[in-house]
Design brief:
- The protein folds into three domains: 4-140, PAS domain (Beta-Lactamase, 2-Layer Sandwich), CATH 3.30.450.20; 142-222, Signal transduction histidine kinase, dimerisation/phosphotransfer (DHp) domain (Helix Hairpins, Orthogonal Bundle), CATH 1.10.287.130; 230-382, 2-Layer Sandwich (Heat Shock Protein 90), CATH 3.30.565.10.
- 49% of the residues lie in helices and 22% in strands.
- The protein has eleven helices and twelve strands.
- A hairpin with a 5-residue loop joins strand 3 (102-108) and strand 4 (114-124).
- Helix 6 runs antiparallel to helix 7 (194-222), helix 8 (234-251) runs parallel beside helix 9 (270-287) and helix 9 (270-287) runs antiparallel to helix 10.
- It is elongated.
Length: 383
Amino acid sequence: MLRAEFFETIRQKLDKIDKTTLQSLMSDIFEDFDIMRTALNSMTEGILVTDNDRKVYFANKMAIKNLHIKTASISNEPLENVVGDKNVINTIEQALQNEEKLTELELRTENDEYISLSVHPLVKKSAIIGSIIISQDITLDKENEKKLQRAENLAAVSTISAGIAHEIKNPLSAISIHVQLLQDQVKACKCENSDDMKYCLNVVNDEITRLSDIVNNFLFAVRPITPTLMPVKFNDFLDKFVRFITPEVKEKNILLVKSYSDLPEVLLDEKIFKQAVLNLTENSIAAVKNADNPTIELEAYTRDDYVIFNVIDNGIGIPDDYKSKIFNPYFTTKSNGTGLGLAILYKIIKEHNGEVTFTSQPGQTVFTISLPITFRQSNLLGE
């Protein structure tokens, strides 16, 4: 590869070089330039270079992706006409205007992606001749941070919650037994206030049952799950679940749509996985309460080696401020909620070697569960 000092020597002696030597030198220069361009386009970081007038001199492939560059011909174009994301261009423009040096600033784009952004001066012979803008897609890193945070949140409360729940469950059982004994005695009693006493005891019994359910949910959330995974045709599981949930959605005048047909086997613990799907569906039922033509759709299909299962509703949607928190234990927007439903869902799906994601806007929320097709079926498909 030709060195910079060599170019300076050639420049000084340009008028003395014969045509053949010049052609050979130009060929070497073009080859070196092509190697440099290939090297820059092979980098995982985005590199964009501008002059002092903020006109683009060069951008590699990763810069085009990270900065959402929207025009095919970018050379000598103003920076603001090239970068397609407002959050990104505003940050860059402000740094350049204030002559600030940015180093690995984490920035959220308009497409809900995350990039790390650095802005450095481009220096030649001790003079600033432009700027170098370095960008890196850190969306996956941020997602992994969130997953780690969720795991840490679960671990942090596990020991305390399990101990408290266990201590509450024992006296609750004793109270429940004695309330039942009192109910039996009241039934046999012919006293004047027996009806009032029956009503009060029924209320107490209902509240004991509600508390017991809360404690069981706490224990389910914090104790390790050991699912018994068996091959199950996913459409058979969904058919059973639809039969189970239909009476409730009919009673609440909700349209339940089935969008699936024949699906391959996945490894499920049907009892545990049913709890996960029920948690999602109950959330959707609550979300469509005030919707016009309330609808919940259960959609499933295959993609690559996975079964993709979507629970879709046309409810109020999840506010942006809540989206990063909904899988956190004890986060709830319901007055009588425990905040464990989606935390339990997340835990169950991970124990099934799956993933759960969601998208939400007013009028449509989609929770997506991805489950691997069983090894036996994946081999058959690959033969």
